[in-house]
Amino acid sequence: MESGTINDNIRITSMMVMEAKSVLDRNQLPQWELTVRWEWTPASNTWGERVWVYKDRSPEVINRAMYTVRVERGNIKKRQGGEYWDGTQDWMYNWKVLEFDAVNEPQPAATAPAPAAPVQQPPQPPQPPQSQPQAPVIQRAPAGSIDEKQMMIMRQSTLNYASILIAPLVCDYNDIGQVIETTTTVASTLLKYVITGEIPRAEHPDAEVEF
């Protein structure tokens, strides 16, 4: 999944949480100390990167899972020798989490309206037989009809749902890169269905699709 750019420094992207610790800042305000991997984190970086997020801007509980977040690019990192990187790659910067996107939060259940009192209807004359109803036709979005903002929302939603599906299986993976690859593959499949209406099918009738 490609990150959605808001401007040069702020963007919406996915963040894989590897570890979450509850800590306090120097003013005794509660924070999360997170070890994460970004979309742009090199595969050679297996230890992740640390970021801190105040709890009033975060979900009540943070698990090892993929989250959609709004981030801001900070200062360029230094090399081990003390010199700064040239800033040509996103992983050369420090990143700050501004907020967790709304698609990660559970939505309140809608209250069902009270049933209306039945209304007595006068008897109707018999109706002539009608033709059998036709199967509904899935309306596919014509090419070019989805703008970038709508596409960004669809990507966020499908990625978040994919991370929910994959979350129970995270402990079965030894490589965090495999978790990200599997999650984005599932998200791509869901996004394709949302755009085209075509139900994904296994290549072989006896093949099993695992989520």
Plain-language structure description:
- The chain is an alpha+beta fold and 211 residues long.
- The protein has two domains: 4-104, OB fold (Dihydrolipoamide Acetyltransferase, E2P) (Beta Barrel); 148-196, no CATH class.
- It is built from two helices and six strands, in the order ββββββαα.
- Helix 1 packs across helix 2.
- Residues 104-111 and 207-211 have low confidence and may be disordered.
Produce a short descriptive summary:
The chain is an alpha+beta fold.
| Range of helix content | 10-25%
User: How much of the residues is beta strand, in percent?
Assistant: 15-25%
Number of domains: 2
User: What structural class is derived from the secondary structure elements?
Assistant: alpha+beta
Query: How many angstroms does the end-to-end distance come to?
Result: 18 Å
Cα gyration radius (Å): 24 Å
Model regions low in confidence, pLDDT < 50 over at least 5 residues: 104-111, 207-211
Summarize the main sheet: 6 strands, antiparallel
